[in-house]
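Narrative of activities, Objective 1.

The group set out to show that a structural description can be obtained from nothing but a protein's sequence at a throughput compatible with the screening campaign. Below is one input-output pair from the validation batch, recorded exactly as produced.
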Amino acid sequence: MTERKPARFVELSQVITDGMTTLPGWQPPRITDWLTREASRSRYAPGVEFHVGRIDMIANTGTYLDAPAHRWADGPDLTGVPLDRLADLPGLVVRVPAGTHAVGRSMLAPYAVAGRAVLLHTGWDAHFGTDRYAGPDAPHLTAEGADWLVEAGATLVGIDSINIDDMTPAAAGERPAHSALLAAGIPIVEHLTGLAALPEEGFRFTAAPPMVAGMGTFPVRAFAIVD
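Output recorded for this entry:
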């Protein structure tokens, strides 16, 4: 009888640190103590101490998930996204050639995306934390690409770039990928990292945020389990 190899876990999240930059010009997180170990000693029995931290941050920090309410006022917030769109999803990696600025329908069409978490591997996470990360050549998903993913039945869409949409001035603030995917109830995960470590398929993907009422975006611990 052949012994089955243990599953391999692959970390796909950016580390959140005090003062880090996720989006240029957006408030960085502040990580402090709410209760220090020293201060806690007066509350407990001798030899017992605890630490309670505090973090002040905007929801778009690190690797995060967008729920429909992020874009649409009447869309489900984080409490309304079902777990079968967030956890233990069959995954698919789309390898985006280096130097590609726009991921469109033709690049996606060869893939069977129905019922899968579709992760766009652009390699742009190598620039995370640098000025280039938000540069004009950051890869993104086009409007037609997003429409095709909706039509083809993707369950979730992720990218290892600064935004699923084009952020250049020429885009005039339009967000067609966010609009189409979230209108269809397809969650988006942005600022992924480590996708090079995944096979094209044969893995399960999870990116589940806490159930915070009234919020449409929140950081996640995104990871994959490779058989």
